[in-house]
Amino acid sequence: MRLFLIFPFLFLFQMASAQYGLDGFWAGEIITKDGIFRIELILEIDDYSWKSTGMTIIYKNGEVVEKRIFEGRLYQDRSIGLEELPLEQNDSAFIRKYQLLLERSAEGAILKGFWQEIITDPMATKRQIGQLTLHKQKDTGA
User: How does 22-37 read in b/e, with b if 16+ C-beta sit within 10 Å?
Assistant: First the structure.
């Protein structure tokens, strides 16, 4: 009897990421110490493990300046933690860690949050940090 009552709740939790509508293409702004730049994020979330994968693309003056693969996790409070992966072993550019929260509004879904440079000394004054806001883009139906 208990299993019969628990099963529907497990099914609802597994389908949560699909209901949030997080998969897909997001675009917005990333704020850094050097200014505000356009950022695009392609996000895929596994409905069963809630693990996420995807890519971030940062533009400066209309040109791609950085492209990174990331992995992360969706949490039950509608937050997402993402961490960029180095592109190669001798990658000299810093990598970021993102903490995002899904907000729903009349304008659609919005991911807002913060990013920080991943370094060994988290209190270092040279550590880069910033904010970002992403808006869900319409599906092109391709």
Answer: bbbebbbebbbeeeeb
Burial of 77 (0-12, 13-18, 19+ CB in 10 A): exposed
pLDDT digits (tens, 9 = 90+) for 57-76: 999 999 998 889 999 999 98
H/E element holding 48? none
Closest among 123, 128, 134, 60 to 93, alpha carbons compared: 128
Q: At which residue do the structure tokens 């270092």 appear?
A: 124
Q: Give me the domains of the chain, ranges plus CATH numbers.
A: 2-136 (2.40.128.30)
Q: For the chain, where are the E strands, in sequence order? A: 24-32, 35-45, 51-60, 63-74, 79-85, 96-105, 108-117, 129-136
Per-residue b or e along 91-101, where b marks 16 or more CB atoms closer than 10 Å to that residue's CB: eeeebbebebe
**Model confidence, pTM:** 0.77
